[in-house]
Amino acid sequence: MQSIAVLGATGSIGQNTLDVIGRHPDRYRVFALAAHSRIDLLEQQILQFRPDVAVVVDPVAAESLRRRLEECAIPTEVLSGCDALVDVARLPEVDTVMAAIVGAAGLPSAMAAAKAGKRLLLANKEALVMAGDLFMNAVRESGAVLLPIDSEHNAIFQSLPADYRRNPERHGVAHITLTASGGPFRGFDRKRLTAVTPAQAVSHPKWSMGPKISVDSATLMNKGLEVIEAHYLFGIGPDQIKVVVHPQSTIHSLVQYADGSVIAELGAPDMRTPIAHALAWPERIVSGVDWLDLVACGRFDFMAPDLDAFPCLRLAFDALAQGGRAPSVLNAANEVAVAAFLEDRIGFMQIPEIIEATLGAIDHGPIHNLGDVLEADKVARAHAESLVALSA
Ligand code: NAD
Ligand code: MG
Fold first, then answer.
1. Shortest-distance ligand to the CA of residue 34
2. Tens-digit pLDDT profile for residues 225-263
3. pLDDT digits (tens, 9 = 90+) for 151-177
4. With contact defined as beta carbons under 8 Å apart, do 18 and 49 qualify?
5. pTM of the model
6. Å from CA of 248 to ligand 2 middle
7. What pLDDT is stored for residue 113 in this prediction?
8. What is the DSSP string of 45-62?
């Protein structure tokens, strides 16, 4: 029986994770659930899965959940605050951590799980973007088992040999190709993009996801973050990472080998597949996902990404090439700009402008420890916020 902590339980990935876990009560036990403040949904999840511990980061929401659980005599202990996320991620009772908090807020708990040698199911790509080398070192030193949840990275993981160990040369890996749906604005030019609204940006054609990653998919920053994520996860150079737009989102990513072979993972665009894969690896379990019907798919299309209309992808490649703190700065500026766009404070095309200006203004010095990462994040957020305020 695997004992699991789901961090970000009320989000899109968290809910999908509990959907898969709920199909296998003989294999998995939910030890802890954590969320920011959506206690109505969290309470339902607690009633269904009866975890020992729940974390609600917001203290007011935590207190009200505590009262509700007391009233119905549910013994789940409710903790609050950011430190409680870190504590839960390294509890000895927890074997597996699903790191599904969105954004930089997920870094400390994901890092704690990595350092504690957990089986770590990583959805929170921002943690790797911000602290890639530190994160991978922590995994290596602790012996943690890191399993990617991002569908592209999960596909690559499945398409690489089992003993790959971040060594593309030894295994004849020539390059990897990340597929991108192109998002809701595929085919739009810059002029059309200036007028798009937050509501349009969050209605993704293929995947149902949280608001932040939906906007990232619309700007192609999601693919940019995934390029950086792939670099660290698979120890592969930026020049060996390609991006292709594939609107059907059926081929989740591909590995090209030296002999010309291409190995890919295909499936319906449903996150329960990578979640079930990572939960059960190296075994396989039922996920609830529909079978892939190739005749119903009919055709697959591919096109190059439009870096003029969607400069975020280029900015991410640039930040990876600069290294050091640049990916943290990119991520922080993006989080600020996306939040401002969702609040209607800036336009869609100002997202890349703010990120580029922040990258240009902040020192990209090296990273020695987590403190350096958090400092870069803080400074970049303040700078990006000032740019938002100027343009509002
Ligand atoms: P979401 O917005 O639906 O959910 C976010 C979760 O994080 C919620 O449970 C929320 O309570 C929690 N949270 C937010 N801020 C927090 C904070 N400050 N402290 C503690 N908890 C906090 O997001 P999502 O779409 O589920 O995405 C989660 C992560 O998974 C992101 O990093 C995203 O990039 C990644 N991811 C998501 C998908 C997808 O299909 N949704 C696919 C690939 C990768
Ligand atoms: Mg993805």
1. 1
2. 999 999 999 999 999 999 999 999 999 999 999 999 999
3. 999 999 999 999 998 999 999 999 999
4. yes
5. 0.98
6. 14
7. 98
8. HHHHH--SEEEESSHHHH
Rounded-to-5 percentages of helix, strand, coil across the chain: 50, 15, 35
Structure confidence at residue 364 as a pLDDT band (50, 70, 90): confident
Closest ligand 1 atom, CA of 123?
30
3-state secondary structure of 342: helix
145: left (phi over 0), alpha (psi -120 to 50) or beta: beta
Between 272-280 and 12-22, two packed helices, what is the crossing angle to 10 degrees?
60
CA distance linking residue 138 with residue 127, whole number of Å: 12
100 Cβ closer than 6 Å to some ligand 1 atom:
yes
d(CA 194, CA 347): 6
- Rounded Cα distance between 157 and 165, Å, is 11
| Cross-strand bridge partners of residue 254 | 177, 264
Q: Name the average pLDDT for the chain.
A: 97
In the structure, what pLDDT confidence band is assigned to residue 28 with cuts at 50, 70 and 90? Answer: very high
> Can you give the pLDDT at residue 207?
75
Atom of ligand 1 nearest to the CA of 9: 9
Q: Which amino acid is at 140?
A: R
pLDDT band at 204 (very low <50, low <70, confident <90, very high): confident
Q: Which of 133, 142, 147, 95 is nearest to 115 (CA)?
A: 142
Distance (Å) of CA 170 to CA 52, 154, 164, 166, 369: 45, 21, 8, 9, 30
Query: Which of 20, 40, 207, 209 to mutate to test ligand 1, by most ligand atoms within 8 A of the CB atom?
Result: 209
From 16, 38, 101, mutation site for ligand 1 pocket: most ligand atoms within 8 A of C-beta: 101
